[in-house]
Amino acid sequence: MTASDQQYPLPLALPLDEQVTGNQRKEEPNRVSPLMAQILERDNLIRAMKQVRRNKGASGIDGMTVEQLPDYLKNHWSKLRQQLESGTYRPRPVKRVEIPKPDGSKRKLGIPTVIDRFIQQAIAQVVQSYWEPRFHPNSFGFRPQRSAHQAVKTMQSMVKQGNKTVVDLDLKAFFDEVNHDRLMARLKQQHRDKDVLMLINRYLKASIHSPTGVERCCKGVPQGGPLSPLLANIVLDEMDWMLSARGHHFVRYADDCQILVKSQRSGERVMQSVTQFINRVLRLKVNVNKSAVALIWTRSFLGFSLAYRTLNIKVSEKSTKRLKEKVRKLTSRTRGHNLSRLIAELKESLLGWKAYFGISEVKSSLQMIDKWIRRKLRCYLWKQWGRSGYWKLRRLGVDRQLAWNTSKSAHGSWRLSKSPALYRALPNRYFKNLGLPELATG
């Protein structure tokens, strides 16, 4: 690519279909392999373009943004298509990014260039259409018309049938440990198209640019590309059908798998046999520190757990803790934002959290979170008021004696946030009128 090619044009000059398809191609269609021809079909490319733009995401090593992709393809698609058809296209290296995980460790992401994300998306759409009918019905992750909520409700249904012991499997660094030979062998069972298989293999082998230098990739499926979720399902689909053939009740969402059994003893047998299968056949590793055989209500799945006795779906303790940590950061004393701005920031986080955890059947836990958040806001305001606390309370309708006793109290702000004076001055409706969402309602 020349220096001028790197100056990606910003304005969009043509409709999306004209940008993607390009009418300059004159190669004979018979030279293109059947699967590659499907991938390069106009409608498939337009779908891929729309999905990449919808997903947004960071730039790869070349710095190109999603907004710049359509105009770039308008000028260069003919050459890219010729390379894809002839089998000479080489993916660019992926950019290594590490993001912190809740347990303190870091998740490694591989960010392909926007061009490669577009090509991967086009491949994934076609390849998925072949694999989707083959996938097990108890697999819910990264599949059309399936969701985490469905996985949780399926797990709950199995538990209510009497399977109250869970074999909770956690695969160690799954996306980093996927064996390329095993994955390519699985792909070849369904596809005989050498051109597409070769391109997928090149994406698997693409080098990684990290702050420490360039790394060769000999295993793993980099998280961050559109192909990765599909390839992960293809790898683990073999385990799904093994579990099904043995008559096990199980639910899987990506690399999170729960097998439901009726007793601790049978659970330990299943854990041992499945671990052997994962090690020997899939060539992956089970994280023994995070995996366990236990009663279902002592474990969590996709952020949810089941209540003891009733087996109703509720928000897990870990999920509640993470939300509280986020609220604490937003309401930290040093931020100094006014309440309206703070609630606007909280609203953005809380509405997203509510959209996911709103299926919880145990509303009491959500009510407790609502109560805790309002208390944090009362504490936040009391700290901001400082020495003017007495006059603020008086203006908000608190009688003189109670306002005086509260303002002169030796107790800390967190304890006073639960005082009668703060509840009278700042009732629940006060925060509701400012737009604070309630997690337990609606």
What does this structure look like?
The chain has 442 residues and is of the alpha+beta class. The chain has 19 helices and 10 strands. The chain has helices at 16-21, 34-39, 42-55, 69-86, 114-131, 148-160, 174-177, 180-190, 194-205, 227-245, 264-280, 317-330, 339-357, 363-385, 389-395, 400-407, 413-416, 420-425, 428-433, and strands at residues 94-100, 106-111, 165-170, 208-210, 213-215, 249-253, 256-261, 292-295, 304-306, 313-315. The strands form 3 sheets. Strands 2-1-4-5 form a 4-stranded mixed sheet, with no helix packed on it. β9 (304-306) and β10 (313-315) form a beta hairpin. α3 (42-55) packs across α5. The longest helix has 23 residues, at 363-385. It is globular and about 90 Å long. The chain starts with 15 loop residues before the first helix and ends in a 9-residue tail after the last helix.
Our measurement of the CA-to-CA distance between the termini, rounded to an integer number of angstroms, reads: 54 Å
Q: Helix content range of the residues, please?
A: 40-55%
Q: Using DSSP, what is the number of strands?
A: 10
Shape: globular
* SS-based class: alpha+beta
Approximately what portion of the residues adopt beta-strand conformation?
5-15%
